[in-house]
Design brief:
Chain B: Pfam families: MBOAT. Chain B: Keywords: Acyltransferase, Cell membrane, Membrane, Transferase, Transmembrane, Transmembrane helix. Chain B: GO terms for molecular function: acyltransferase activity. The complex is a heterodimer of chains A (about 375) and B (about 525). Chain A has 16 helices and 5 strands. Chain A is of the alpha/beta class and about 375 residues long. Chain A is globular, with a radius of gyration of 25 Å. The relative contact order of chain A is 0.14. Chain B folds into 3 domains: about 200 residues, no CATH class; about 160 residues; about 130 residues. Chain B starts with a helix and ends in a 13-residue tail after the last helix. Classes of the chains: A alpha/beta (about 375), B mainly alpha (about 525). Chains A and B meet through helix 2 and helix 11 of A and helix 11 and helix 22 of B.
Chain lengths: ~375, ~525
């Protein structure tokens, strides 16, 4: 070993070296490679623990944008929307901010929507934000009914919220909320011990997006505007395209909505989130997002009543307002009955500003 | 039509999803809890999994801890480790392989000792018959029974049995590889080319040695047994070579082969051109064919590199199986560079015994066709593999005739041997081989549909992934081939400082891990 280190950087002339020297060189190569493998793994593993943009770019990129907004001079109170892909496309925070400025109520608005997220993801993200000292002055919290039901296979979010996006302290939370402990711990361990493999989609999503299928990409938060809003990729749809999209949504959502009952770990997470918001002094307004007429028809009357009762009861219990925006928009404001086009986002954001945020802002000047 | 195909795709996915369950039931019906536990520890016989690396580490440490003078103990250790490696996947079949190997050992002893030609021949037939019988039972039974069923049905009779689906039959991993090893051993002993091995553990290691057990290379007794007897010292140079080969194999498998599989087989959200050719446009099918050529090469040569690398870690040198086959300037050369251990086996035990090229053009061409068809059938019990072998046989015959004609045309010969001529020949050979790969899978109808659409102008789906990464990968592979062919890599390898090489290895592994697509793909050649 003492002879190995000086040899590490010594170039060789092979034809003139003795077999013994070759063997020494080979030993140095093997040792150097083992050190390099260990160093590369440890380096990324450590960086992933320190920088959330590596482990969970969906959160990290949004956080970076939010922090940039909060660093702006003369900023007003922070109004933040936390929700799913519905919120990402719907809440045009820049537009909201502009309208409030015009109304003389300077406010910082931010869209913290994350695709394929529900109450469990929202709980984890809210905790991270609170821990980092970021507390919105008003939190608009999306209610996505399909995520709030109890499923035999565990919470629906366990299909998308993989442990490689989580920090070690968050593992117990998701396991406590019905995620499979072995899968969660195994995946987290893999992403920590072999981070270049376990976090490869996060890394590739940052540098070589076209090399991975869109379903594996983690860079959606990076492509939003400075306020966290994603402009819908499609602006106009033919009737046929819309019908196909609605059909796909039907296949995905009707099994969940037909006999919907609130319950299970997702509701537990939702309630925990509301409780922790209250404890941290963060006022919350619950928002039932707009849906097209056909999408709304997939809820049976009994389910509709159940949902209304659940929202009303929860809002009353935690002392927060509930906004039922389900019927705010016409059918042509959506791509697939629940994700909004730009025209829908503008109408929704304007009405939300007018009816919810501006009155709140006037109250809390 | 798209909807129907999509339904078929989802049915296929459903079938595939339930296949492991059904195989699992059959597999564990008679087995002991110990093997169940073993299976949980090492669920797949793949070299690039964390479980295997742990297994390798344990075996290597134990192996090198045993003192040099106890070489037989080291051999036993490797035999036991190899048995466990296979038994972790399927203990019954591991016992079967071990049992037939022991039988081969004793039969070869008898052949070697025998003096009467007729008895020796009888013993040879017994050994070859046993090996081929087991191979046919597991690998070809379903094919022949199903063909017979269809034939009998076509003439209006009831065969009296139902057809077998691939899920009804468990084909032991690597059966074609170790069967050929055992046959070549018996034949070589019969021909008195080698003496029968006297030591059972050494012979067991020859067949069962885990680096080559499931997907080759096909090892010859003459190349391996003396190595098993040789007392081995720890050698850092071997370790470096082994590590380099292993990492190269991992890179080929994860970063290239599995990545190319996304272009051929698709993702969960979209089937690829090889699964649903009827849905894809013409250019996608051509690109997918090229991706498949790259995939199968990197998949199999990657596995071979890993096998060679692991063997080096234990002081063994296995046969080189690939030598940049896509740089071959004709099909004949391609077969001297592709799956070398199989092509030389077929040459020595099929082509030459049939008469080789000694008896005129017609007989030579006939022998070539027979050899290649058998080579195709070796890969799988299906008409597509027969067609694949037939096409390669035809290409070899055409090349042979062309060669005989072109040698009489000095100007043409000179033109073909220029830089441009060679590049054109390499390109043409690659195109021919790539088109043949379209048949290298079980569904004949899909192959025909794919070829039809490749030579038309069809609209349809594009590739499941942006083709930029496909082109970059093709360019990268080409560049690597040129670096090695021009000897630049060897020069670099010999002269580079240790730190540069060490970091290079680490970066190679890191890039392989980063580029690995979702969900590991099995090795294509494991099923052969």
């Amino acid at each position: 070993m003492p002879q190995t280190l000086p040899r590490l950087f010594a170039a060789r002339r092979p034809l003139r070296t003795a077999p013994r020297a070759k063997r020494r060189h080979a030993r140095a190569v093997v040792i150097a490679s083992l050190f390099a493998i260990a160093a590369l793994s440890a380096g990324l593993g450590l960086a992933a623990e320190l920088y959330p943009r590596i482990r969970d770019p969906l959160y990290g990129d949004k956080l970076a944008k939010l922090q940039a907004k909060l660093r702006e001079p003369n900023r007003g109170p922070l109004v933040m929307m936390l929700g799913s892909s519905r919120s990402i496309f719907a809440f045009d925070a820049g537009r909201v901010e502009g309208q409030l400025r015009e109304a003389g109520r300077s406010t910082t608005a931010f869209n913290f929507g994350v695709p394929a997220s529900g109450p469990i993801t929202h709980l984890l993200y809210a905790r991270r934000l609170f821990r980092d000292g970021t507390k919105p002055d008003l939190l608009l919290l999306e209610i996505l009914p399909s995520m709030l039901t109890d499923l035999p296979a565990g919470p629906q979010e366990s299909r998308w919220l993989y442990a490689d996006r989580l920090t070690h302290r968050e593992l117990d939370t998701v396991i406590g909320l019905g995620f499979d402990a072995e899968t969660v711990r195994g995946r987290w361990r893999e992403s920590t011990l072999t981070p270049w493999y376990g976090l490869r989609f996060q890394l590739l999503g940052r540098v070589l997006q076209s090399w991975i299928p869109w379903t594996m990409r983690h860079d959606w938060s990076r492509t939003t505007d400075a306020h966290g809003w994603s402009t819908p990729m499609i602006q106009t749809l033919t009737a046929e395209q819309r019908a196909t999209a609605v059909e796909q949504a039907r296949a995905e959502y009707t099994p969940l909505l037909f006999d919907w009952k609130p319950g299970g770990p997702a509701v537990e997470a939702f309630r925990t989130l509301l409780r922790e918001c209250r404890e941290n002094g963060v006022p919350v307004k619950l928002v039932l997002m707009p849906e097209g007429s056909e999408f709304r028809s997939w809820y049976s009357p009994a389910v509709r009543d159940r949902l209304t009762a659940f929202v009303r009861q929860t809002a009353a219990e935690f002392g927060c307002d509930a906004i039922d925006a389900r019927e705010w928009l016409p059918d042509d404001a959506f791509t697939d009955g629940h994700h909004q086009l730009r025209v829908g986002a503008e109408a929704f954001s304007d009405r939300l500003t007018r009816e919810v945020i501006l009155p709140w802002r006037k109250e809390h000047n | 039509m798209i909807a129907t195909s999509a339904t078929a795709f989802s049915t296929a996915f459903h079938e595939a999803a339930h296949a492991p369950e059904r195989i699992e039931k059959a597999r564990w019906a008679l087995e002991l809890p110990y093997f169940r536990w073993l299976h949980e520890q090492l669920p797949e016989p793949f070299f690039h999994t964390q479980a295997f690396l742990l297994f390798l580490l344990v075996v290597a440490v134990a192996y090198w801890t045993v003192p040099r003078r106890m070489n037989t103990a080291r051999v036993w250790l490797l035999v036991i480790a190899s048995f466990h490696f296979y038994a972790a996947w399927n203990a019954s079949l591991a016992l079967l392989v071990t049992g037939t190997t022991i039988a081969d050992f004793f039969l070869a002893q008898l052949i070697d000792r025998g003096q009467r030609p007729r008895v020796r021949k009888l013993l040879l037939f017994a050994s070859v018959g046993m090996n081929l019988g087991i191979l046919c039972y597991f690998k070809y039974r379903g094919f022949f029974l199903n063909e017979l069923h269809d034939l009998v049905g076509r003439v209006g009779f009831d065969a009296g049995y139902r057809t077998l689906s691939p899920l009804d039959i468990i084909v032991p991993f690597g059966i074609s590889f170790y069967t050929f090893e055992a046959i070549s051993y018996a034949v070589d002993v019969y021909r008195r080319k080698i003496r029968a091995e006297r030591s059972l553990p050494h012979f067991l290691l020859f067949i069962l040695f885990f680096p080559h057990l499931v997907a080759g290379p096909i090892v010859r007794a003459g190349d391996f047994l003396w190595q098993a007897h040789r007392v081995k010292r720890w050698n850092w140079l071997r370790v470096q070579v082994g590590l380099q080969l292993f990492l190269l194999g991992v890179f080929k498998k994860l970063a290239i082969a599995d990545r190319m599989a996304v272009f051929t087989d698709g993702t969960g959200a979209q089937p690829g051109p090889f699964l649903m050719p009827e849905l894809h446009n013409t250019s996608s099918l051509w690109l997918a064919a090229m991706a498949y050529a790259l995939r199968i090469y990197c998949d199999f040569s990657g596995y071979s590199d890993m096998a060679l690398g692991i063997a080096h870690l234990f002081g063994f040198k296995l046969t080189q199986n690939f030598n940049m086959p896509y740089l071959a300037a004709n099909v004949s050369e391609f077969w001297r560079r592709w799956h070398i251990s199989l092509s030389t086996w077929l040459r020595d035990y099929v082509f030459i015994p049939l008469g080789g090229s000694r008896a005129g053009a017609w007989v030579t061409n006939r022998n070539l066709m027979i050899t290649m068809i058998l080579g195709g059938l070796w890969h799988g019990a299906n008409w597509t593999y027969v067609v694949w072998g037939l096409l390669h046989g035809l290409l070899l015959v055409i090349h042979r005739q062309f060669r005989a004609w072109s040698v009489t045309k000095p100007k043409l010969e000179a033109a073909l041997n220029t830089w441009v001529g060679t590049a054109a020949r390499v390109g043409l050979t690659f195109a021919c081989v790539t088109l043949c790969w379209v048949f290298f899978r079980p569904e004949c109808a899909k192959s025909i549909t794919m070829l039809q659409r490749m030579f038309g102008l069809y609209d349809g789906l594009t590739l499941p992934l942006h083709n930029r990464s496909l082109w970059y990968t093709v360019l990268f592979v080409l560049l690597c081939h040129l670096l090695v062919a021009r000897g630049l890599w060897q020069k670099f390898w010999e002269r580079a400082p240790a730190a540069v090489l060490g970091v290079g290895y680490a970066v190679c592994l890191t890039v392989a891990m980063v580029l690995a697509p979702d969900g590991g793909k099995t090795f294509i050649y494991f099923t052969f």
